[in-house]
Amino acid sequence: MARASLGYSPPPLSYFRHVSNLHNYTRLAASSAFHVSSAADPMAHPSLETLGGALHPLLPPLRLPTPPTIFASFYRSTPDVRLRRECLRTTDNGAVSLDWVSRDDRLLPPDSPLLILLPGLTGGSDDSYVRHMLVRARSKGWRVVVFNSRGCGGSPVTTPQFYSASFLGDMREVVAHVGNRYPKANLYAVGWSLGANILVRYLGQESHACRLSGAVSLCNPFNLVIADEDFRKGFNIVYDKALASALSKIFKKHALLFEDMGGDFNIPLAANAKSVREFDDGLTRVSFGFKSVDDYYSNSSSSNSIKDVCIPLLCIQAGNDPIAPNRGIPREDIKDNPNCMLIVTPKGGHLGWVAGPEAPFGAPWTDPVVMDFLQHLERGKSGALSSSDSESEQRRLEGLHQLEV
């Protein structure tokens, strides 16, 4: 009811292609679940469960080979792309780095759709998953910019403050900056992991005033309290130590900025953190004014923001993600919000998804799904439906807000 009072209409189904097929998918989803397996194919997932079948037009073939995430981390190719860096000074004298594809300012028209990419924790424009998404979007004629947070991707740190899951100031400034530079372009965003958490929190905070026309969240931890609990169990400790090491490495490069810091800062703990929790306890939660790590995690979880999202949002998760636990996904809020759609694959790990026509060394299977979604949003922006068509297709959209793949 709150959204209706703001004059916002849920996205019409024209944002998705092949309406007739999608109508069939809706009918099937209401009545059945399919288990797909093939003993003849050793690479097929032994029990692929979907709601509504595997032929949804937004999804690739669903017999997904799923080697471990670590395989993708070490062996996925990294496309060679020439980038032009822009350092953006923020209002608090901090700095973030925006990496644009070289020469696109001259090659692309000013109204080309613009996609902002938000990498995961400690990630940047050099990461393979970011590069693959960038290349795919650029091949469709989109203007793309990678948002490298403070200290990430070689971005400078000019004040004694990094970024965090709670801080949305840099995101607001980046969106305003690129929007003002290209005022004729529709803006979109894709975020991974912590970048996805920041993106969804931004969407919820901005609500109906959001300048983005659509967004995609990938491997979002959503509930950081639950993510922290699972992070310290079993093999997940390996991921925890690796991320803590990456955070400490970035911190040590800029340690002089943090000398003589008073208050509750624990600089030695942050510099030698053996877990993400230790780093956040020594530095992050103090920098952003939280009394404890649990207080920081509880108040920085994007699961709290889903109900306030007022633009089309696609969320893609993996059921076995060690960093973004399946049990932390806010399913009910996603289901209740007519602007949100959820896809959960049984396998894929964290930023893995080694499947599809480019497996095992190329782009993850999610990339074409993401671009299909965004391109249909862009077509919907450029060609509005009649009100009767919109009402008819909106009825067909019911039941599609939560897809478990």
Short synopsis of the structure:
Strands 3-4-6-5-7-8-9-10-11 form a 9-stranded mixed sheet, with helices on both faces. The chain has a two-stranded antiparallel ribbon with strand order 1-2.
In words, what does this structure look like?
With 405 residues, the chain is an alpha/beta fold. It is 37% helix and 15% strand. It has 15 helices and 11 strands. It has helices at residues 2-5, 19-29, 69-75, 104-107, 128-139, 169-181, 194-206, 224-231, 236-253, 267-271, 276-287, 293-299, 331-336, 366-382, 387-397; strands spanning 33-36, 48-51, 83-89, 95-101, 114-118, 143-148, 187-192, 212-218, 313-318, 340-345, 402-404. The strands form 2 sheets. A 9-stranded mixed sheet has the order 3-4-6-5-7-8-9-10-11, sandwiched between helices. Mean pLDDT is 78; it is low at 1-71, 385-390 and 395-405.
Describe the secondary-structure layout.
Layout: H1 2-5, H2 19-29, E1 33-36, E2 48-51, H3 69-75, E3 83-89, E4 95-101, H4 104-107, E5 114-118, H5 128-139, E6 143-148, H6 169-181, E7 187-192, H7 194-206, E8 212-218, H8 224-231, H9 236-253, H10 267-271, H11 276-287, H12 293-299, E9 313-318, H13 331-336, E10 340-345, H14 366-382, H15 387-397, E11 402-404
Helix pairs in contact: 9-11
Keywords: Hydrolase, Serine esterase
InterPro entries: AB_hydrolase_1, AB_hydrolase_4_CS, AB_hydrolase_4_sf, AB_hydrolase_fold, ABHD4
Family: Belongs to the AB hydrolase superfamily. AB hydrolase 4 family.
Radius of gyration: 21 Å
What profile does the largest beta sheet have?
Answer: 9 strands, mixed
One letter per element, helices H and strands E, the order comes to HHEEHEEHEHEHEHEHHHHHEHEHHE
**How are the strands of the biggest sheet laid out side by side?**
3-4-6-5-7-8-9-10-11
> What's the N-to-C terminus distance?
30 Å
Percentage of residues in DSSP E strands: 15-25%
Overall mean confidence score, pLDDT: 78
- What ranges have pLDDT less than 50 throughout 5 or more consecutive residues? 1-71, 385-390, 395-405
Characterize the overall form. Answer: globular
Total strands: the figure is: 11
Residue share in helix:
25-40%
Count of DSSP-assigned helices: 15
| Class inferred from helices and paired strands | alpha/beta
Region (Disordered): 382-405
Family: Belongs to the AB hydrolase superfamily. AB hydrolase 4 family.
Keywords: Hydrolase, Serine esterase
Biased composition (Basic and acidic residues): 392-405
